[in-house]
Specification:
The complex is a heterodimer of chains A (491) and B (496).
Chain A lengths: L8 H9 L5 H14 L6 E4 L1 H16 L10 E5 L26 H8 L3 E6 L39 H8 L5 E6 L5 H7 L2 E4 L19 E6 L2 H11 L29 E5 L9 H16 L3 E5 L7 H16 L17 H12 L2 H14 L5 H21 L5 E5 L15 H5 L6 H6 L3 E8 L5 E8 L4 H15 L10
Parallel strand pairs in A: 2-3, 7-8, 7-9
Antiparallel strand pairs in A: 1-3, 4-6, 5-6, 5-10, 9-11, 10-11
Chain B lengths: L5 E4 L2 E14 L38 H13 L7 E2 L2 E4 L9 E4 L9 E6 L5 E13 L3 E3 L8 E3 L6 E7 L6 H18 L11 E10 L3 H8 L9 E6 L2 H20 L8 E5 L4 E6 L10 E2 L6 E2 L2 H9 L5 H12 L3 H8 L2 H10 L5 H18 L11 H12 L5 H12 L5 H7 L8 H14 L1 H9 L4 H11 L6 H12 L2
Parallel strand pairs in B: 12-13
Antiparallel strand pairs in B: 1-2, 2-10, 2-11, 3-16, 4-5, 4-15, 6-7, 7-10, 8-9, 11-12, 13-14
Helix pairs in contact in B: 2-4, 6-7, 8-10, 10-11, 13-15, 13-16, 15-16
The chains are: A alpha/beta (491), B alpha+beta (496).
């Protein structure tokens, strides 16, 4: 493969700016990489013609001195983002060949800054899954393989498995992703990439197919912390078309990466030491603590007492919102429609054939917890738990500036391994759902390898709107970890 | 409250209890959560935005103008304005509901308790307590009769802002229910928050009907316990005063029959069919929806600035009740006349224009009896009246200064209706000036007495027989003689 695909986004932008190569050249290199990587199944739609057209336009703007922040950089777009004139499916059968007439705010922001779209990336159906196995297009395969696990195909994590795999395999310089319970951070951890979920409200949800509105947040998956900072700066911003979008300034986050963490107080929440946590994860966490201590940060033990209720609360709130958000997929106006003898049959057949098993499971759970007689016991209770979890964090910020935890309780597992047991699958999110419930920024940084040579990630959580500190701490971890490993190419 | 309407049954007397949910479309150029235009008469699906069609990833953004109209209406209903309210999703499937849920306000409405003072035809009034007013989206329209097999959907109305105004069960007769809607409509029109057009469905009522035995309702009012009342049925979407009354009558009768046969009324939603004059069940109990209400996570709680509410309050127009009191005080009108005038703001404005410098009671009579009667016959609104307020005033002026009699004025009115112009010109043109020249009247009286000596003699015995002479003189003069002058001269000449 061309050396151009091995560049970080930062290096590529520098090269484009200095005209060392053109956008068309680096885009062609990535198109070739995407084609060659079809066995990974990371892309569900390749858009090479559009990519080259956008690249040529980017080159023209670079030539005329009108280059934007991301001018000419080829990116992958998670297929949960609606892209104008380009099929957008949420990797569900029910959307069929839906082609939106509109561009999501986040992708529009990226394209306005000059980014080039290579195609649409695979995900768990409607972003519901932690292994990418619920996609109507079949699962993505993790570019990484375990030295100790034979030649088994591994999950890239989910739901943004396509985004994480594509970045890890150098198929794009960076990718958009979304995170409802860990869907950016867990795949990033499983693929040795960086993924940040910003503060709820930083990125507009307009034009992103909704899963759980109060938890969904877009963010980038990138090769480095700095790349993630550059991408998030472009993606974020107030959008009056999303009532939950925050009307605040978007800082330029790249300069925060590399800033000293000296004097910062880093909290280590004791409740995240869960039973059965692999020793390798424990060790990685300790490494992280040591690295930050060496970099001059102060380590403090903190307590987030309601952590154990986070996962159950999440699996009530998210399906409840999803059951309502997905009601619009009824076969009446767009997407897939099955035949039936009457209206009820059309609804039943369309939704029975259009949705996959996991989506149906969550719609059923969500419908149940919102039902008359159960609402108070489930939904209302879960909302109260949510409030307590947010209060826990507020309490923690009294004594620390950021938190350090593992991203996921394990490294990437084999495809098919946890399909049969939804609870085992849901446990993947145990360290990540808390920040969705509290709306806080959190990043996953690759920090080491397990005994089988698979990447492991550490998570940094910050105060609301304090992505700056999160990027600084993540930068310090990245530097100290010196993580350079790449998946060995087998595809 | 005392004169409750009673229905006679086989087993004794029954009373009815009525509560209304009025849906008033907010007079707004754009929808509640999208920028799409609102209008009547656009082609099917021409006023639909991506949000209204519930395309993937689309989000609602609250329309501030609609919120302002709800606050105005709340203030007009003398109701509590809730500075914090919330939007919830009401979930159900139907093809004209693209999102699969209606955004409404379930637990925390924008407006709380208020009241409406309702005027009856007999001049008495009663109070209907308002329970709440909330904002919600309207659904689209399903059209079932274009094709035997298919249903067509028009989403123009989808997402339009509605105010649902919920009353307490404070109405006790079909007439009272209609009078309440009439009064509410007048308030909404005065506020400008709803155009009140019932034919277009911009104002429609869901009527909750139950029946009980005499005395039960009083127990309910004392205790607040609904156990004293019968099971209610909700009649959906009734859109005229006449249908409201007919629907209540026929539904109450249906319930009484069930109860007297030893049955029990099922709580259900029913539809009124005016052609058959019956109510029909819309959906059975088994099909009853569980709407799974929950707070809409796409929208933040609605928080109002108290200063903004104050500002809206300061800009309120004169409300019908205040106007009624003022009309009674300033013009000496009866409660009845004043309440008819305020039932339509345009009529009151017309009256006030016409009454400038005139005998207000006469103007009220001419406006309410003659003009409104004539307009009603032709199905016209006062705004489309062929006679202007100034001309009604001028007509009354001619009566006041004795130029014409009240009787002649009716003739002049007819000519005015036919578009012949100002009353003075009509009087001139048709020679309708009243004869006040006593000489001419005396001549006529003399001739009459000479020709009828027997009658002249008889009238001395029976003075009320003078009416015959008056009639004859008026006939002779083509009705133009001043009746007072005729009377006076006759009395003198007949020696009464």
């Amino acid at each position: 493969m061309s050396e151009l695909t091995k560049l970080t986004l930062k290096a590529a932008l520098d090269g484009l700016k200095s005209k060392s190569f053109s956008s068309v050249e680096i885009t062609r290199a990535h198109i070739a990489a995407v084609e060659a990587a079809r066995p990974l199944n990371a892309f569900v739609l390749e858009t090479p013609d559009k990519a080259l057209e956008m690249a040529a336009a980017a080159d023209a703007r670079i030539a005329s001195g009108d280059a934007g922040r991301l001018e000419g950089a080829p990116l992958g777009i998670k297929d949960l983002f609606c892209t104008k004139g380009v099929r957008s499916t949420a990797c569900s059968r029910i959307l069929g060949n839906f082609v939106p007439e509109y561009e999501s705010t986040v992708t529009a922001n990226l394209f306005d800054d000059g980014a080039v779209m290579l195609g649409k990336l695979n995900l768990d159906e409607f972003a519901m899954g932690s292994s990418n196995e619920t996609s109507a297009f079949g699962n993505v395969i993790n570019p990484w393989k375990s030295a100790s696990g034979g030649n088994k195909a591994l999950t890239p994590g989910g739901s943004s498995g396509g985004s994480a795999a594509a970045v890890a395999a150098d198929l794009c310089l960076g990718a958009t992703a979304t995170d409802t319970g860990g869907s950016i951070r867990q795949p990033a951890a499983f693929t040795g990439t960086v993924g940040i979920k910003p503060t709820y409200g930083r990125c507009s949800r307009w034009g992103i197919v909704a899963f759980a509105s109060s938890l969904d947040q877009a963010g980038p998956i990138a090769k480095t912390v700095e790349d993630a900072a550059i991408l998030l700066t472009s993606m974020a911003g107030h959008d009056p078309r999303d009532s939950t979008s925050l009307d605040v300034e978007t800082p330029d986050w790249a300069p925060y990466v590399g800033r000293s963490v000296k004097g910062l107080r880093i909290g280590v929440p004791k409740e995240y030491r869960v039973d059965g946590m692999p020793a390798e994860i424990e060790k990685l966490w300790q490494d992280g603590i040591d690295w930050l201590k060496e970099a001059g940060a102060e380590i403090v033990e903190v307590s987030l007492p309601h952590t154990k209720y986070a996962l159950p609360a999440y699996y009530i709130v998210a399906p409840a919102e999803a059951s309502s958000n997905l009601a619009r997929y009824d076969g009446m106006r767009y997407g897939f429609r099955a035949e039936g003898g009457n209206l009820t049959e059309i609804y039943e057949n369309t939704r029975a054939e259009g949705f996959g098993q996991e989506v149906k499971r969550r719609i059923l759970i969500g419908t149940y917890v919102l039902s008359a007689g159960y609402y108070d016991a489930y939904y209302l209770k879960a909302q109260k738990v949510r409030r307590r979890i947010a209060d826990d964090f507020d309490q923690a910020w009294q004594t620390c500036d950021a938190l350090l935890t593992p991203t996921a309780p394990s490294a990437a597992f084999a495809l098919g391994e946890r399909n049969a047991d939804p609870i085992a699958m849901y446990l993947n999110d145990v360290f990540t759902v808390t920040t969705n419930l509290a709306g806080l920024p959190s990043i996953s940084v690759p920090a080491g390898l397990d005994s089988g040579g698979l990447p492991l990630g550490l998570q940094v959580i910050g105060r609301a709107l304090d992505e700056g500190t999160v990027f600084s701490v993540a930068g310090a971890l990245e530097k100290a970890a010196g993580f350079r490993a790449k998946a060995e190419r087998w595809w | 409250m005392t004169n409750a309407f009673t229905l006679k049954g086989r087993t004794g007397d029954w009373e009815i209890v009525l509560g209304l949910e009025v849906h008033a479309q907010v007079a707004s150029n754009s929808k509640l959560f999208s920028g799409a235009a609102v209008g009547f008469g656009a082609g099917p699906n021409e006023q639909v935005s991506l949000v209204d069609a519930a395309m993937p990833g689309m989000l609602p953004v609250l329309n501030k103008y609609c919120v302002e109209q709800a606050v105005r209406t709340g203030l007009g209903l003398k109701a509590q304005i809730n500075l914090k309210s919330r939007f919830d999703r009401k979930n159900y499937f139907y093809p004209d509901l693209p999102q699969g849920y209606q955004i409404s306000q379930f637990e925390f409405p924008i407006v709380g308790e208020g009241e409406v003072i309702v005027d009856r035809i007999d001049g008495t009034s009663f109070t209907v307590r308002i329970e709440r007013l909330h904002l919600e989206q309207d659904a689209g329209k399903s059209i079932h009769d274009l094709d035997p097999k298919a249903t067509y959907v028009d989403l123009n109305r989808s997402g339009t802002a509605l105010m649902e105004i919920v009353s307490k069960p404070d109405m006790r007769s079909p007439e009272d229910a209609a009078a309440y809607v009439k009064k509410l409509r007048a308030i909404l029109i005065t506020l400008g928050t709803c155009d009140g057009d019932m034919e277009k469905g911009n104002l429609r009522a869901d009527v909750n009907v139950s029946v009980c035995r005499p005395g039960d309702y009083e127990k309910f009012r004392e205790t607040g316990s609904f156990s004293h009342l019968g099971t209610r049925c909700e009649i959906k979407n009734v859109n005229s005063y006449r249908f409201i009354q007919q629907a209540i009558n026929v539904e109450a009768r249906r319930q009484i029959e069930i109860l007297e046969d030893g049955g029990k009324v099922d709580q259900e939603t029913r539809l009124y069919d005016p052609t058959k004059n019956e109510t029909r069940s819309m959906r059975s109990k088994e099909e009853a929806h569980d709407y799974r209400y929950f707070p809409d996570p796409d929208l933040l709680p609605l928080v109002l600035d108290p200063a903004w509410v104050k500002e809206i309050e300061a800009g309120l127009p004169e409300l019908p009740d205040a106007k009624k009191a003022r009309l009674m005080a300033d013009y000496g009108l009866s409660a009845y006349d004043a309440s008819v005038l305020i039932s339509d703001g345009e009529v009151a404005a017309f009256f006030e224009e016409a009454a400038k410098g005139r005998d207000a009671k006469l103007v009220a009579n001419w406006t309410l009896n003659d003009l409104l009667g004539r307009l009603g016959k032709d199905g016209l609104e006062i705004t489309a009246s062929p006679i202007s307020a100034a001309d009604i005033g001028a007509l009354v002026g001619l009566i006041e200064d004795g130029t014409i009699s009240g009787k002649i004025a009716r003739t002049v009115f007819e000519h005015m209706w036919d578009g012949e112009g100002a009353p003075a010109a009509i009087v001139e043109k048709h020679g309708l000036v009243q004869i006040t020249d006593t000489g001419a009247i005396e001549t006529a009286v003399d001739a009459l007495i000479a020709a009828n000596p027997d009658k002249a003699a008889a009238v001395k015995e029976k003075p009320q027989a003078i009416g015959w002479f008056v009639g004859q003189v008026m006939k002779e003069t083509g009705g133009k003689a001043n009746p007072a002058a005729v009377n006076e001269i006759l009395k003198a000449k007949l020696g009464l």
